[in-house]
Design brief:
Elements lengths: L8 H10 L12 H15 L2 H4 L22 H5 L4 H12 L12 H17 L5 E4 L5 E14 L2 E12 L5 H11 L8 E4 L2 H15 L18 E5 L7 H8 L13 E2 L7 E2 L2 H18 L4 E5 L1 E2 L22 H10 L18 E7 L7 H6 L9 E5 L6 E5 L5 H14 L5 E10 L2 E5 L10
Parallel strand pairs: 1-4
Antiparallel strand pairs: 1-2, 2-3, 3-5, 6-7, 8-14, 9-12, 10-11, 10-13, 11-12, 13-14
Helix pairs in contact: 1-2, 6-8
Length: 450
């Protein structure tokens, strides 16, 4: 039986989706497993293991964020974004749009903006905050007691908080609010509009983090805050590629994620746990199934894109790399120092479900990702090709010299015959192993705009 504090199943799936974790629409994963996945995803969004590899956290072991005048504002330290988001911001600003991510349409994005409002309150005299939705049905009273510095990119906000619903305002919250409103002090309070959904995410983080504080830590708090809960907040940002793969993984039935025991007998491309799930999926699967019936699939063995040309130093980043954590600089340093090492296979974010790939043959005349990776000497034209999906969660290469040449040539022939300028085309693919995928040669998807 689910704990009474657990959110309804539909809400958990919605919150996971706001973070980019899109599980099968009718997944049969237990409620407790979904709840656990949300908790772990929120830990990953805080990059928790960077700050607390071995809990508990003792805030007194870190210096004050405000220890000298040269320290950046807390607001600047709390921001987190990846390369993809930075690109969207730049493109929007060129079009005169301040924020490409509208408020109140994505709970996770809203949470990150609310954290910036909390950080801004720290920079303006540590003002207390009330976070509530527009209908004032749910609210969180909060005050930041202290801000510590893990490093110059990462503030640790020590907070006390209390959550109340409209019809059950606690005495503690009432006294706390009254203490600030009396004598005109209410001017110092900050009101933040926060949807019920983003409050749920924030409360989940606060309740998870409160257990990670060392028990001996007893910061000074106001008398009206005796009933408030002590916790801490870290910067929250988008999930990285590895996390996206981990929390989106569905290696079993295409519908529920349970272990798959059978394939669709017509196309053989989609797996199910039983006939019930297969029947449930038939309406959406039928168009693809009709196209894949008797289709010709080719197995390809790939390598990481950076390993396709070992004689060259290749610098390539992923759009999910976090800007503030120096991931890009670390990648450059590793390549420069020839310390690539064994990076292991790329994560499988698609499980056994078919997905669309873009395949681009290396050419000195090509433009786009394959151009930046492969274009050099025209003698190498057609020696390899690049494969990636829309999210760039997989970005690999197939090298003719170290592959099954017949398999390599069968794919490039399709690209040359049906692709754009004979250089690139879209295919259906299925991951069949850590370093292999099957590509459908004679049932190409519609042309994609990415």
């Amino acid at each position: 039986m689910a704990p009474p504090s657990m959110l309804p199943r539909k809400e958990i799936l919605g919150l996971l989706s706001s973070m980019g974790v899109d599980l099968p629409r009718k997944t049969k994963l237990p409620d407790t497993e979904l709840d656990k996945r949300l908790s772990k995803a929120l830990d990953s969004a805080q990059y928790l293991t960077r700050v607390i590899p071995t809990p508990p956290l003792d805030p007194t072991s870190y210096p004050s964020w405000f220890r000298d005048k040269s320290t950046k504002p807390v607001l600047e330290g709390i921001r987190r974004h990846n390369i993809a988001e930075a690109t969207q911001f730049d493109a929007s600003q060129m079009r005169g749009i301040d924020n490409p991510f509208p408020l109140y349409s994505n709970a996770f994005m809203d949470l990150r903006q609310t954290l910036m409002a909390i950080a801004n309150a720290c920079d303006n005299g540590m003002a207390p905050l009330i976070l509530q939705d527009k209908g004032e049905s749910s609210g969180i009273c909060m005050r930041v007691l202290d801000v510590r510095q893990f490093d110059d990119q990462t503030p640790i906000l020590i907070v006390v908080f209390q959550h109340d619903l409209k019809d059950s305002l606690s005495r503690g919250s009432f006294d706390w609010i009254s203490s600030y409103l009396s004598g005109g002090a209410g001017r110092a309070m900050v009101n933040v509009t926060a949807t019920v959904q983003e409050q749920q995410l924030l409360l989940r983080i606060l309740n998870q983090n409160k257990k990670r504080l060392i028990s001996s830590y007893k910061p000074k708090r106001a008398s009206t805050e005796s009933s408030f809960t002590l916790s801490f907040l870290l910067p929250v940002g988008p999930l990285g590629m590895q996390d996206m793969a981990k929390y989106n993984t569905n290696n079993g039935c295409s519908i529920c994620g349970e272990p798959a025991k059978q394939k669709c007998s017509r196309c053989g491309a989609v797996r199910y746990c039983d006939a019930v799930c297969q029947k449930e999926d038939w309406k959406s699967h039928r168009p693809l199934c009709n196209g894949w019936k008797d289709a010709k699939w080719q197995t390809l063995t790939f390598v990481l894109a950076d390993d396709a040309r070992p004689e060259r130093y290749v610098f390539r980043w992923n759009k999910y790399d976090n800007v503030q954590h120096n991931d890009i600089q670390k990648l450059m340093d590793r390549i420069k120092d020839k310390k690539e090492g064994d990076q292991g296979p790329p994560p499988n974010t698609h499980g056994t479900t078919p997905f669309i790939i873009k395949l681009q043959v290396s050419s000195s005349k090509a433009m786009g990702p394959a151009h930046t990776l492969f274009a050099a000497d025209p003698k190498n034209d057609g020696a390899d090709f690049l494969i990636y999906d829309q999210r760039r969660t997989i970005e690999v290469a197939v090298v003719r010299a170290s592959s099954d040449t017949a398999a390599f040539d069968s794919v490039t022939e399709v690209v040359q015959a049906k692709g754009e300028r004979g250089l690139k085309a879209f295919f259906w693919a299925i991951r069949t192993g850590e370093w292999t995928m099957d590509v459908c040669l004679d049932r190409l998807p519609e042309w994609q705009k990415w």
